[in-house]
Structure prediction request, 260 residues.
Amino acid sequence: MSDITLQVWEFELVSHVLTLGYAVMAAGLLYFWLTIRQNLPKYRMSNVLSVVVSISALLLLFFQQQSWVDSYTPILTGGVVTGYESIGTFSNGFRYLNWLIDVPNLLTQILFVAAISGAAFRKYWRDFTLYGMLMIVTGYVGQFYEPGRTSGSNVALWLAWGGVSTIYYVFILITMTKVIDEGAKNMKGSKMVGIFKFIKPWFYVTWTIYPIAYLMPALFGADIDSVVVVSQQVLYTIADVTSKIIYGIMLNTVSTFLSQ
Ligand code: RET
Prediction:
């Protein structure tokens, strides 16, 4: 990325948000692990997948925070820190690779709680994995062309790869809608249907934060500046907490209740 100067609060905000992010992942990890036995064996795989997702995100956010701190150096004016200047490359590339693990797991875990099995399970699992991986890999390629990078930036290619990625994202939304409708039918009459159905709008909103963060350079002008970098980190972290941990808590609440 090009040279960026951050205000002190901007540098600190991102550092704090990333730290909060990995602390939440650690808490989530323990919660999903410790509550696993409150679920019937047929639901437990959902908790196992939440544990896998939490640990991979915990590591990612931890290293993302370290990389953030290493990528900026304080600007001193008369011995006082008045801002931060970029010295290294801080990129979101690691995040995309983390999603490669987490996205298929997040999509698969709901199949256990929705009580989908047999051939239907295999079909949904295959579609989720395929669309998820293609969405991320094409988005990963696209982010190399993000406007404002010192080299390689190309707006047309950035939008084109982002557009291809969005097609797979729409397939995921359609498949998830079917899964939630089917799962709600399977638990008809239970008090948990309301929470389970609420996962649908929750999923739409929290997952859509990711493409919005991708588009930040378009919303704030082509030059990468501090607003883009800072807002991306804050948005991605909010999306991580809501799409992994809060989603997992909703699924765990439903499956624990259904296990009684
Ligand atoms: C990209 C590229 C631009 C277009 C779209 C994207 C969608 C990303 C999504 C990511 C979800 C990630 C999750 C991670 C959890 O660990 C790749 C930003 C549509 C939806 C849920």
